[in-house]
Amino acid sequence: MNELNTIGKRIAKARKDAGKTQSEIADKLGVTFQAVSSWERDEFVPETFNLIELAKALDVSVSSLVEDRGDYIFEPVKDIFNWEHMRTFVKATAKAEGMKESLKAVDFAVKAHEGQFRKNSTDIPYIYHPLNLACHCLAMGIRDDAIIAACLLHDVVEDTPYTVEDLPVSEDTKHLVSLMTHEKDDDRREEIMREYFKGLASDPRAALIKCVDRCNNMTTMSWGLSRERIYRMINETEEYIYPLLQVIKDEPEFNNAAWLLSYQIKSMIDIYKRLM
């Protein structure tokens, strides 16, 4: 039985999911908390303007508040793969293929990201992400040791106290990790992104890693990114990632990977656009 069969009940659930009180929502919309309470009790329906502002305040779509979705309510799955199983797969493959840098990178990455969790989730260990990148590349047939090692280490310098010089890998792999690393400054974000992606485009291997990174991040956008962040992700993907796909495609060794990544990324962009 659908327990969210009225607008009021859907508003109440969205508010509670957002961790907001009726008073906080009322202040945000410039209405009384009694008005919000009356909406949630289905005594009144918000006017169109208030409904739009309410959706923004709760970071949900207007349709999710208005539409009775009936049985179309699903419980999302987050950790599709167990990170420890992924680590075992990466280590076994690296050992079988003689990928010495990747073997060292696995354990170093696990140690470096210990205690960290995905930014848009509170219960998924961060190491899930770099391991996913490494598994993705291996599944596409990539056996370049520096690429797999850089996948595993790509966020270490940016998100942990370790520096590039601390990484237990060759200068070539450190170079790839450096290209994958950028400073964080919202005031200069556009300038930083332009230079960052220019550097990535200079090395097809770095371009490949970044596209796999974006592909994985896009699969987890629905875990908790705000609608504003999702819009930004879509726009930046079209502006910066699509050109990187061409950089990969122009490298014969990565032609198949470019085709797969192009399909995965562009189809996800289209799905998000249709659902936003």
In short:
The chain has 276 residues and is an all-alpha fold. The protein has 2 domains: 7-66, lambda repressor-like DNA-binding domains (434 Repressor (Amino-terminal Domain), Orthogonal Bundle); 83-275, Hypothetical protein af1432 (Orthogonal Bundle), CATH 1.10.3210.10. It has 15 helices and no strands.
List its salient traits:
single chain, 276 residues, mainly alpha, Hypothetical protein af1432, 0% strand, elongated
**Low-confidence residue ranges:** none
* Overall mean confidence score, pLDDT: 91
Describe the main β-sheet briefly. none
Overall CATH class of the largest domain: Mainly Alpha
Overall SS class: mainly alpha
Radius of gyration: 22 Å
Residues in β-strands, percent: under 5%
Instruction: Name the helicity range.
Output: 55-70%
Structure commentary:
64% of the residues lie in helices and 0% in strands. The chain is mainly α. The protein folds into 2 domains: 7-66, Orthogonal Bundle (434 Repressor (Amino-terminal Domain)); 83-275, Hypothetical protein af1432, CATH 1.10.3210.10. It is built from 15 helices and no strands. The relative contact order is 0.08. Helix 8 packs antiparallel against helix 9.
